Please model this.
Amino acid sequence: MVQKRLVVLMMAVFLVCAALPAFAQLSPEAQRAIQWGKEAAQNKNYELALTFFEMAQKEAPNAPEIYGYLGLTESKIGGRELRAIAWYGAYLAANPRAGNAAAVNNAIAELMKASENNISLLMKTWEAASEDMPDSADRGPHTDGFRRDFWREQVGEWYASYGSIEDARRIAKSIPNPQMADGVWAGILSAQLRAGDKGSAKRTLKLIHDATRKKTAQDEIDRAEKPRKDDEVKDDEVTARVSVSDWTQLFVAGAPPGLDGAIFTDLAASMHPTSSDRADLLEHGYGDPWIMVGQLSYVANNLGSMQEKIKRMLKAQAAQQVTQ
Model:
């Protein structure tokens, strides 16, 4: 159903974008590249279309319509939802009063749902891979010193940080090592406090065994209960300003990984229902259990972090558009 709605919305965006005339200030080279990109996209050769639209962007780096074409084309390639959203974000930042702004915003919402589904599936794959690890670091093969409970803790903490409390609680209960389970319970407590659920956080506190970690968690609760001054109540996500360059910077290589990395495209795209045996990951060289689990951990954490960052930027940009 989500995919069907997305296709309809993408067509609406495409029809509006395709109707846009080439801006007079665009060079002949940029206009030609855009035309070639449109033709490639209409033939469903989206990789080639991206090449042409990227050429057009180099010729006209500040042209809003090119951001729109890049977003539309990225949205046609599985696993690139966050990249598509970022290009659409740049398009709206450069042209907040665009005639197709409503359609673009709707497309962004559907793309975000698709991204969340992908990350959820990626998490399930990571969790399943962690279960393949031996229960002891000295019971190889291929543990690289890490055992099953270590990765269970990592999975549980990620679930908690992403707000999947029930999944995190399920993982915490499955970990026989109390100290490692404590890491997940502490993550759950932090997530509950972020959600404003202090009552649940206090109940979670009782499940933490380690005295030092329990004290840290109690301090976290105490800070959350401390009255905040008026100037501390402001929503930084809403008051922040988001520019075109903020969106395009997401594609610049660096640390932490941006949207330029292959992990945000190829590996993410491999997380689909037919990959229950993770055959496509094995084909990419992640055959040893500890290598696969480590790579899935890296991808899941970076995808999740990037998605949360993009959500904050979209929230800030939406607030800006209301005041413009």
User: Anything to note?
Assistant: The chain has two domains: 2-111, 112-224+236-323.
